[in-house]
Each structure stands twice: as structure tokens, then as C-alpha cells.
Design a protein that fits this description.
Helix content: 25-40%
Radius of gyration: 19 Å
Number of strands: 14
Structural class: alpha/beta
Number of domains: 2
CATH class of the largest domain: Alpha Beta
Number of helices: 10
Distance between the termini: 37 Å
CATH superfamily of the largest domain: NAD(P)-binding Rossmann-like Domain
CATH architecture of the largest domain: 3-Layer(aba) Sandwich
Strand content: 15-25%
Largest sheet: 7 strands, parallel
Length: 319
Amino acid sequence: MAVLVVGGAGYIGSHTAHVLRRRGYDVIIYDNLCTGFRDLAEGFELVVGDFADKTKIAPVLRRCDAVMFFAAHASVAESVENPKKYYHNNVTSAVSLLDYVMESRVRRFIFSSTAAVYGNATQSPIPETCPKQPVNPYGATKLAFENALEAYSTAYGLKYVSFRYFNAAGADDSGTIGEMHDPESHLIPIIFQAIQGKRAALSVYGDDYPTPDGTCVRDYIHVTDLADAHVLGLEYLTKSPSIAMNLGTGKGYSVKEVIEAVEHVTGHTVPTQIGPRRPGDPAELVADPSLAERTLKWKAQRSLDNIIETAWKWAQKRH
């Protein structure tokens, strides 16, 4: 089976491409390299183009049996500052991609969604039945595309899985690929930058949240555990109906707890400074992953320490 990994030169897409290949799938990576990196697609067929460019992507779709879509913009803070960018890419262009998919033979679609669709959740851990009330444009655009998938599934027979990620982290065990963003926006790599002297200190955005130590609580899931779930999702769609489900560990860690874990694993002290809250940041996001565990026979395997160990190995290699 040939799988088109749209956004496969990015963080989660590249890790999923590697897991797909290890499981015997043929993989084509499609990426405009706007936020992706050619190095992360090394060893794969890479088609460079915009996924809304029909003349470029339609011939590639004709060679594929399934699509995995990782190409959405994904910064909460940027989405608040520049919502136009997020609605254009994550909704308008993404729906154009769906149209091109429906003109091809592809009827299996895996979507990289987010826990941000829940907003300030009314319960924790968060089940899929929790009201979806995003509090930032990033979450709103992801939910809009989830709704489009549901409508296309009902009307046109597209089969999909929407995976609502919690906080992806870590790096491939091989050490050959890992997290790369420019600028970096994820907590653990930013902590490493503070350790390595690439920034003066880690800015902790708010220490007055209604959490045990006042800092935001998140569910950190290893990127390879996420990638494993995507392959299982593809297999699920061969015999089962469309579905949306959470991917997380079911356990949350505060920013301060992550800092302490990094200090323990690396042996380095993390310089920190407390700043104001960021707009659009919920206090707590922790998954109830039981639906994915039951449906896919999948469970996150890697601990926070393993996440940090693999990410630190990658950060040292890049440094």
C-alpha cells in the first residue's frame, strides 16, 4: 500500500513516515518545506509543493492508496496573532485537498488533529464526548476541518480517522530524526536551548493557573507512540467506520514538573524566568485515551523520562 504523507518533512509527519516504512508501506512525502525540513525527509521520495496546488498533487494522489495529513499550521500563539494565516491554510486549503482526494481513488484519510478542539475542557482527563469549544484560532481551524471530514464521509464515502493529539514530544530512538521548528515553540526543546545557552532562560508563561503548582499541565506523548497509532489507524479503516479519538497517555505534568524531569535526566540546571500567561492557553489538557486503547489495541508505551532522553540525544546531536 502506498501512503502519501502530506507534511512529512515536519516533526510528527517524518516520524510517522519512518514507522510506516518499517511496517512495509510505500511512502511518498509531500511538503512545501515552509516549516518542514528536507533533512527530515532524507531517504524518502519527496515531492516539494503546496498541498492546495492541484496540478502538483493530483498526479501524486493517483499513485497512492491513503493520505495522512500533517501540514496544518500549529502554533497557538501565532494563531491568536494571525488568524488569517490559520484559516487560509488549515481550513480553506485543507478542504481543497479533500476535493482533490475525492477526485482520486483514495478513500482513506488520517488527520492530525489536536486536543485544542476541547478548549477549556469541562472535565479531566478529557474524553471524546467532552464539548468541543476551542479557545484559540488554531483549535477552531482544526475543529472546522474535523467537521468537513465528517460531512465528506457522510456524503461521499470518505473514511477517516481524526487523531486528537495532546503534547507530542521526544525523538526517534535511532537518533536520526527529531523535533525541528524555526522558531522553536515546544516546551522540552526550548528547555534544552536554555541549557545549551541558546537563550538566556526558559520563560514560564504564568504561574497562577488553577493547577497544583500554578503552571500549565499537559499530557506529553512520545512522537513514536503517536506514529504507531497512525499506522494502526490506517489498518483500522480497512474494516471499520470513520472515527475521532484522543492520543495521549492519560497522565499530566506541569511545566515545573517537566523542568525537574529534564534536570534529573540531563544533570543540568534549567535557568527560568516567570512571565505572564499567553492568550489562548488552557490550564490543563490531559487525555482520556481509552477509546484508542480499545479500538486500536494501542497504548502509549514511553515515559516522560524516555521522551526527555530521546529528545536530549537529538538536541545534543544538533548542537
